[in-house]
Structure formats: C-alpha cells, structure tokens
Amino acid sequence: MIVEELDILDWTLISLLGVLFLAQVWFYARYLCAPARRMRQERKKVQRADEQKVSDLPPVSVILCAHNESYNLSQYLQALLTQDYPQYEVIVVDDGSEDETRAVLDSYMVHDERLHMTFVPYGARVGSTKKLALTLGAKAAQYDYLLLTDADCVPESNHWIREMVKGFGKVPSDQVPSTKDIVLGFGAYFEEKGHINRLVRYDTLFNGLHYLGAALCGHPYMGVGRNLAYRKSLFFETGGFTKLMTNIAGDDDLFVNHVATKENTAVVLSRDSYTWSIAKKTLKEWWQQKRRHLSVSPSYKPETKARLAIEPMTRGLFYLTVIAVIVLYWPVFGTVPMLPFLVAAGLFLARWIMQAVILNVSAHRMGLKGFNMFSILWFDIVLPLVSAWMLIVPKRRMKW
C-alpha cells in the first residue's frame, strides 16, 4: 500500500503542505472574498429612490494636491466640478509647481466659485511637502467631511461624492453625528496594452481586495489617497500628520493605519464610487512608485505588520515546499512513494484554481478586467520577491 510506504519525513512534508494550503485558503476566503461577498449582498437589497434625501447629505470638501499637474488638471478637474451633489467645494493645493498649474486653476476659478486654491510656502523645510499640502488643504476646508483624491484621477461618474459620502452614514443634522469617521474607496487604473499595465492592475486589484476585505472583517489597516475620505475633526483631533512627517510617503495608508478602527471605518464598493488613474508606463516608474509605498510599512502598527506577514510567508513556504516535494519525490520507476508527489501537485493546482476564480470573480463584480491563469501565477510569485527586495536592499532618499 502507498500509505504504508511513507516514513516520518513523508508525513511531515505532507502535513506541512496541508497546513500551508489551509492558511492560504483561509486568507483568500476571509479577506479577498469579503469585497465580492459585500457587493453581492448590496445588489440583493432593494434600492429606494429616496434612499438619500438632499437634507441627509452633508457638505463636503474635496482636496487634491498638485505638483506640476497642469495637464492632468486640465483633463480631469472638470469631472470634479460637475458632480451631482448639492453642496461641496474643491480645494487644490499647489505644492511647488513650476509649470502652468496656477494658470489652469485661475482659468477654472473664474467660472466656478466652488474651486479654491492654496499653496505650500516656497522653501518649506519638511520631510514630506505632500503631508504639509494636505494639512493646509484640511485647514482651508470649510466643511468637516474631507474627500481626498489625486490630480491625475478622474471619478467613475458624477455620483462619486454622493457614493463615498454614503459610507459615513446619514447625517440629518449637526446634532446627530455620522456613524463613521473614515471611508475607504477603491482607486483603479485604466486598462492599456503591455505587461507593465497588467502588472500594475493585478497588484492594485490584489492589494485593493486585501485592504478593503480586511476593513470589512474589522481590521482596517490602510487606504489609498486616490480615493479616501475622513472627517476634518478626526484629522486634527488625532494630530494629523504630526507624528508621520519623517516618512516621505504615508499620507494615506500610514495615517489610516494609525487612526482607523473597526468602529470608525467604512468601506464603499459601488462602481460609481471608484476613481481611475493612468498607470505608470515603464518598469522604472512603477518600481519607484512601489518602493515609495512600501517604504512606510515598517511604521505600521505591530499588530498590522504581524497580520500582513502571514500571507506572504505562508505563500512563499507553500511554493518552496511544493518545489522540494516535487524534486524529492519525482516518480522514477516506483523507487519513491507517490503520495507526497500527488499531494503536492494536487494542492498546488487547487490553490491556483482557487486563486484564479476568486480574483477574476471579484474583478468581474467590480467591473474590472480579469487575468489569465498564467499571468496570475507569474505575478503571484514575482510580486512578493520584488517587495522583499525593496524592503531589504538600501535605497536612496525618495521624493514626493
């Protein structure tokens, strides 16, 4: 019998594979499936036409920073100024632009009094001028509800503000506070041709499902500045970026990591709540962006770092164990037990199929294009190695 031929090493490897496989199944089922489950639940609800009355919608301040963004502002600013929302303002913070940013803003402000501009003082000596820019934008905001995006982002529709505000809960009066203080949204990238674009979109989808799913499961740990909302009162009560100024990045994910809780954070997943951006075109540009984002991860809360380490660690050990078992037990005329080899091959295939189904079903429900199985396998192996390299290898000082 095949089972009788197994020794302690065989059983140890089989057991290790089983534990690592179950850890991966738990991660995908609990976190990455959570957004798709929520979207399915929401679509089953009957939407009433009077679900949100105008009187229930609080005034909102949309804030974005601009550093040499004259082209993007000329392309996308109009989408922010034509939102179907009763009362809001748009504040653009000029962060030391040397192009025609101010001229573009002046041309829009002539025709729309809801658009305002402020700027970072020339020669400001701070570690992160973007954090200073956002702080100045928050101080200039008239309203308590702040909705953040970037100059190179465009909302999915003119209902973007309305959809993101839903996450706060209804606010019928100043005496009745909203139920949430932070709302996490999704920032997608336009689909274009090329391997780099597929890499960026896959990385964005995986990370998006992870942080949104974690928040839905009661463990919010990050957000993205392309689509993020929080209350001005929360920002200043918690000290804003005071404790984060030594980090070049982290104006979005690090701030959320420090102040978000299960009770004060909501997630919005409707398609109209998305923002869209153009992905980096070259490997060098993406590499710099990825490294900047990863640079703040050592400053996450200890419990966040421990939780985030589980998935890539079990993923890497799973791949290494599968490779070791296949090499050690490759069938050669029946001279070695077949069971470890069959278990390794079977679990590898089962995880691959599970991963492809969950990611593509989630992408479909979010209105995004999916990925073929070979792309998923390639990115699944390469991206953790890239992240590990970026975290370990010394790097030059980064700029905003």
Write the layout of secondary structure elements.
Blueprint: H1 8-32, H2 34-44, E1 60-66, H3 70-81, E2 88-94, H4 101-109, E3 115-119, H5 129-140, E4 145-148, E5 153-155, H6 160-166, E6 182-184, E7 187-189, H7 195-216, E8 228-231, H8 232-237, H9 253-259, E9 265-267, E10 275-277, H10 283-294, H11 302-328, H12 339-365, H13 373-392
Parallel strand pairs: 1-2, 1-4, 2-3, 6-9, 7-10
Antiparallel strand pairs: 4-8, 5-10, 6-8
Helix pairs in contact: 1-11, 1-12, 3-4, 7-13, 11-12
Query: Count of DSSP helices?
Result: 13
Number of strands: 10
Globular, elongated, flat, extended or rod-shaped: what is the shape? elongated
- In whole angstroms, the N-to-C terminal distance is 64 Å
Give the % helix: 40-55%
Average pLDDT over all residues: 88
Helix-strand pattern:
HHEHEHEHEEHEEHEHHEEHHHH
* Beta-strand residue percentage: 5-15%
Radius of gyration: 24 Å
Task: Provide the low-confidence segments as ranges.
Answer: none
Question: Any key phrases for this structure?
Answer:
single chain; seven-stranded mixed sheet; 13 helices; 400 residues; elongated; alpha/beta
